TrEMBL record:
Residues 1-134 are annotated as: Disordered. The record marks 510 as: Interaction with DNA. The active site is at 236 (nucleophile), 484 (proton donor/acceptor). One of its GO terms (molecular function) is 3'-tyrosyl-DNA phosphodiesterase activity. GO terms for biological process: DNA repair. One of its GO terms (cellular component) is nucleus. This is Phospholipase D/nuclease. The keyword Nuclease applies. Its main location: nucleus. Belongs to the tyrosyl-DNA phosphodiesterase family. It comes from Terfezia boudieri ATCC MYA-4762.
Length: 620
């Protein structure tokens, strides 16, 4: 439920309350491209913190951290022993040694420069780039990462950016504009911000309107409130639709689906993921699309049309003009509403629909599905689990019919622990974007139920007792960048050598995001679907979400086998011995480190007296 004004608000402390004058100037965009004299009136950090406090009350929503207190004596700061410095240095310093056997795959040869973003490979050579890329973090190796500015940059110097559609949960218009290329012409650029603050009196909507009026050309900025019929739902999708035109009049479009809020905090030191269509050309006159990309186009248009023509009609009318034939991916979204189960293209039923057409090679061993999220909601437990295992994990087990059927996979859920949040670049401040309730008996019962699934974010920072797999560590290179990325990956083997499918999405582990258990229309029945009565069942979805799934079949070429593998550095794999190798950038370490006995997941609702790597404690 939305937080009432009477509820106690949390404050961020160092040695005193944070004031505007206390915020480092690095938090504030200095100027807006095309208007050097302009400046933002309120620091983005305060806007971000205030908005997280005001608008997020359910577990699927993101809230600001409780009070941080700086330790008085210097001796009480986090020590190497307290944060596992040996493992920490192994994760951040190439070539360092530790007790664990570590294969360092996070660096590239010294002469390999950080690369500018490129369009995904054309259908003739789909193995060149990994479908998912991580965002740039200045204090970590930057090889093959991507920045917001590079995503917003037109394809050529003679090309002009004409329109930006930004779908997100939290927006900062000054930050978005400050991320545009410096030569952007703001007098002609149209910006549409799609958000979930539909009430006119909503503080976030008022703030966005103030930012619009502060823009040098306020008439070029349009605020688009999404319809929010569900009280526990959020507009959580994170997408960019960009349109550009060449000097000669050639138009192009770009679709970006990612996991970051449009605020500086999310794009700086948090682990985030990006899928990028590359720049799409116009359809040739009189032609129709019959391709993988055409199906992607159909599904993303289905999603966008659900907002209503008054909100996104202009966008859908533009997108239909472009060819999606170079895309090798499937779109999966969520839109609030109640849907007949047999016809639902959103949420877990939509994902299950895709997986029923995804062939998985049967093996003699069980595969593994790894769910990696930044938020776990209060799930429908009661006297028994009525959603997580019977509905959601069951949907993730679905495959195309085959003989023999693949063995049912094992499941793991990656969620950071308090010591991983403490050791992160931002310390406890990172915990403001990572959510799980661990306060009430019901919360603790849910954690106990999920404990067999729970694994740490970073194997390289795990205590030896958590590492039960003797295989060498493959480093994701993001141990100290707390996760806001969400990935769901099915591996063919327990050793995670090859991949059946991989999903990057804004959706966390919640029935608000993925949809409820099927119920009989008009009833409160929470039972499972009865065979033969699927048409009588409906699924309720509360939030807007957007994601992209890829699997080997999307990259097939005549006469060549496709192998999808986890990738821990670099930007793709090559064709070898007649096989197409598709690399999926994995942000976490493998093999996984299970929670040790009694270990708890991070929860922003609990106090932590132990100081983080910045010398701060965390008190609720």
């Amino acid at each position: 439920m939305p937080e009432s004004p009477s509820m106690k608000r949390r404050k961020l402390h160092t040695s005193k309350d944070v004031r505007v004058e206390d915020i480092p100037t690095s938090e504030i965009p200095k100027s807006i491209p095309g208007n050097p004299s302009s400046s933002t009136a309120v620091p983005d950090f305060l806007r971000e913190t205030a908005h997280r406090r005001r608008t997020l009350a359910t577990l699927t929503k993101e809230v600001s951290p409780p009070p941080l207190r700086r330790a008085t004596p210097a001796s009480s700061r986090a020590t190497p022993a307290s944060i596992g410095a040996t493992a920490l240095s192994s994760a951040t310093t190439p070539g360092s040694s530790s007790d664990a056997q570590i294969v360092d795959l996070t660096t590239s040869p010294p002469n390999e420069a950080s690369k500018a973003p490129q369009a995904p490979a054309q259908p003739s050579s789909p193995n060149t780039h990994t479908p998912f890329r991580l965002t740039h973090i200045s204090t970590l190796p930057t090889n093959h990462t991507i920045t917001l500015r590079s995503l917003l940059t037109p394809p050529t110097t003679s090309c002009t950016l004409t329109t930006v559609w930004c779908f997100n949960y939290i927006h900062s218009l000054p930050f978005l504009v400050s991320s545009l290329p410096s030569d952007t012409n703001l007098s002609t650029l149209r910006i549409h911000l799609v958000h979930g603050s539909w009430r006119i009196e909503d503080a976030n909507r008022i703030r966005l309107e103030e930012e619009r009026l502060e823009h040098p050309y306020p008439g070029n900025v349009r605020l688009v409130p999404a319809y929010m019929p569900e009280p526990f739902g959020t507009h959580h999708s994170k997408m960019l639709f960009l349109f550009s035109v060449e000097e000669g009049g050639e138009e192009m479009a770009r679709v970006v689906i990612h996991t970051a809020n449009m605020i500086p905090f999310d794009w700086e030191n948090m682990t985030q993921g990006v899928w990028d269509s590359g720049w799409l050309p116009l359809l040739s006159p009189g032609t129709e699309e019959f391709s993988i990309g055409a199906e992607f186009k159909s599904e993303i248009l289905r999603y966008l049309k659900a907002y209503g023509s008054s909100r996104t009609g202009e966008l859908t009318a533009e997108l239909v003009k472009f060819s999606f034939s170079q895309i090798r991916a499937a779109f999966i979204g969520s839109v609030p509403g109640k849907y007949k189960l047999s016809e639902c293209h959103f949420g877990w039923p939509g994902l299950e629909r895709i997986l029923r057409n995804t062939h998985i090679q049967p093996t003699s061993t069980r595969g593994k599905v790894i769910c990696q999220v930044s938020s776990i909601a209060t799930l429908a437990m009661g006297s028994k689990d009525s959603w997580l295992t019977p509905i959601f994990l069951n949907a993730l087990s679905v495959t195309a019919p085959s003989k023999p059927l693949p063995l049912k996979p094992e499941f793991s859920i990656i969620f950071p622990t308090p010591d991983e949040i403490r050791a992160s670049i931002n310390g406890y401040r990172s915990g403001g974007a990572v959510h799980l309730k661990a306060v009430t008996p019901a919360n603790l019962k849910q954690i106990d139920y999920m404990r067999p699934y729970l694994c740490r974010w970073s194997g390289s920072l795990a205590p030896p007792s958590s590492q039960t797999d003797p295989a060498p560590l493959r480093l994701g290179g993001r141990a100290r960048a707390a996760p806001h990325i969400k990935t769901f990956i099915r591996y063919n083997e327990p050793t995670c050598k090859t991949i059946s499918w991989a999903l990057l999405t804004s959706a966390n582990l919640s029935n608000q995001a993925w949809g409820s258990a099927p119920t009989t229309k008009g009833s409160r029945d929470r039972g499972l679907v009865i065979p033969g009565l699927g048409d009588e069942k409906e699924v309720r979805i509360c939030s807007y979400e957007a994601g992209v799934i890829v699997f080997p079949g999307l990259f097939e070429e005549e006469g060549k086998e496709v192998v999808m593998k986890p990738l821990f550095h670099g930007d793709g794999l090559s064709v070898e011995e007649g096989k197409i190798h598709v690399g999926i950038r994995v942000p976490y370490d493998l093999p996984l480190a299970k929670y040790k006995s009694g270990e708890m997941p991070w929860s922003p609702g609990r106090s932590y007296a132990e100081v983080d790597c910045l010398g701060q404690s965390y008190l609720v």
